[in-house]
Amino acid sequence: MTQRKIPLRRCNGCGESKPKKELVRVVRAQDGTVSLDLTGKKPGRGAYVCPSAACLAKARKAKRIERALEVSIPDEIYEAMEAEIEKGERNAQ
Fold first, then answer.
1. Rg of the Cα trace of the chain?
2. Phi and psi dihedrals of 6, rounded to 5?
3. What is the pTM of this model?
């Protein structure tokens, strides 16, 4: 039996290529709303970030997610994303 190919995605924060399931997807829906996609299945244009606050901060500082999604992201959405990632980090421990 042949080994299945694991899809890789590049983190917008640190720039590392990792398996898609290890990253958190940030999605821009057709109506322009931006949200976190923890399942990786929401429809829309996506950008990927490691599930760490440090990677999200790097991506935010360099505006990499905004460039990838082709939309400006308000601070409130970044804060909500940071809170969601921190909650996920706490649950993993």
1. 13
2. -95, 120
3. 0.84
